[in-house]
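From the thread on structure requests for the teaching lab: each student submitted one protein with a one-line request. Submission from student K.M.:

"Model MFS transporter from Ornithinimicrobium avium, tokens only."
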Amino acid sequence: MTTTSGQLRADPALERTKGHQRAWGWYDWANSAYVTTTGTVLISPYLTSLARNDACPDLASGEVCDATLRVLGVPVAVGSVAPYTITVATVLSALVLLFVGAIADRHPRPTWLLGGLAWAGATAASLMFFLQGTNWQLGVLLIVIATMCLGASQVVYDALLNRIAHPDDRDKVSSRAWALGYLGGGLLLVLNLVVLQTYEGLGLTYGMAIRLSLLSAGLWWAVFTIIPVVGLRRIRGTTATPVERSEGVVGGTFAQLRSTFGELRNYPQTLTFLLAYLFFNDGIQTVIASASLYGTEALGFDTAQMTITILVVQFVAFFGALGFGIVAGRLGAKRTVLGGIVMWTLVVAFAYFVPSGAFGVWMICAVLIGTVMGGTQALSRSLYSQLVPRGRESEFFSFYQAMERGTSWFGTLAFGLIYQLSGSYRPAILVTIVFFVVGGLILTRVRMREGIEAAGNEQPKVV
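Reply posted by the TA:
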């Protein structure tokens, strides 16, 4: 056993086992089904249809709904309900994730915390089965809860990467887990595609087929979370900076947050990376969240076609994540992520020029997105893990998740605003290029070796 600031810390060799790494990666498999089926494909168009039913109950087939809904007295275009909902969910997550990070590092059993947060989110996802008619308000509430729980659970999950993988192995372990997530999400999407294509033969309405697909994503998330919770059950929490017990849970958490915010200035490279990640990940998250809406509303594809699109993205991303992991092993994760950001910029520009109804051209765009998506996200996670101070993993990964899901509201907000001002999704999608360019430029200024040394971590061979 070794000690950290007087606290017992388990022997790393007992935690960095193949069994722990395999069990850890299953949480990507578990939650990716919700991210793919619900978050990426179904919920934005479905929530928009529920809002349209409420705003324009007598709308004839093919007619455009020009009415607006009033939310807390504010007029909201029907087409902006979904992106605004994502914005609200991520803003609230920005607050919740920081508290989760402070609590997780002090929690004696981090995998129990991971399971509790995941199962709460999975419950909200499963309850989306009851969305129908004009009940878009319930949909807004469930999306907010599921989004917050997903981000909070991943704070705990990502922090465990430092515990179960050596610095030289993190790019590979993270990439494999991310690839596993795309494979799992893709498999469930295949099943849901079959249901959406054959719903009449199954004796279902189209609405019921969508609702069953939403339910399946929640159940998948809940069931497969059992694997990492059980597989990592022997890992115990530890903290490098214990808080006085007399302060209690709430007071101790606030004290821990004050300490962490104060210490960020001592890790300038970590802070610079977080700023870069805020921007380029904003672009990625906006594309993921808005792709289905862009395809259905701007290009005229139906839900089945968009499901095929995301299915192609999922399976291509499986190989893309593994490929990026191999490239990172040779060139380093930073160079590989920068190359991915350049590719993202070109892909968005390509998507802008896809003609309406040109599904074959849209498929080329899907292949390009799949190639770059998994790799940039997986390597960003492992790259940041090198800059996190030992014993403070969950706290610092809470900032990372705040940038990924808690502050990635800039892009969706800009997307929604530009649509509301222009009435078109084409100029709205172009706003993501700004986030990629700014994020990439900031990332070039991160001095990784210096940041790893400042965090007190072991230097990997290639970074």
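TA comment: Residues 1-9, 239-246 have pLDDT under 50 and may be disordered. The chain has 18 helices and four strands.
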